[in-house]
Amino acid sequence: MADRLEKELFLSFLRERRQRVTAERLALLDEVFRQHGHIDAEQLLTAARQRGLKISRATVYRNLELLVASGLARKQRLGRRRFLFEHVHGGQRHDHLVCTRCGRVVEFVSPGIAALQAEICRAHGFVPASYSLQINSLCQGCAEAERVAGDAGEAGERRRVHV
Length: 163
Fold this sequence. Notes:
This protein is α+β, with helices and mostly antiparallel strands. The chain has a domain at 1-92: Winged helix-like DNA-binding domain superfamily/Winged helix DNA-binding domain (Arc Repressor Mutant, subunit A), CATH 1.10.10. Helices cover 52% and strands 14% of the residues. It contains 6 helices and 5 strands; from the N terminus they run ααααββββαβα. The chain has a 3-stranded mixed β-sheet with strand order 4-3-5, with no helix packed on it. It is flat, with a radius of gyration of 21 Å.
């Protein structure tokens, strides 16, 4: 659930843009902050409806974009067509590993990457504002499954060649 400061920030953001403060918007804010990981719009819609909130899919999508614009949520493209959202806590920075086969997402923090970013910016006369690092690869389980499938395919090829 969003804490009081986050709720106040969102209310201020809405008022500055002359957007209405609605029960649905506040409930979605709470639902996004109730999640402890990445969530897509459909998962958020399902979670909100399970809590008894009468809300449309369009409302979820529109309000997720408002949360991103307010800086309280981050939208991350994971894969080709998949967007996930996560709440943002002040000062918290992390990057992502994404399995290209099963879609598993792992968050990681690397002080070395942050230091390297600052060093690269300094060397080229830039001031870092933001960055995004996503490593697309196979998780260990999917890599093993592909290896086993590859071995089985090669064995079948060898059998056909020797017949």
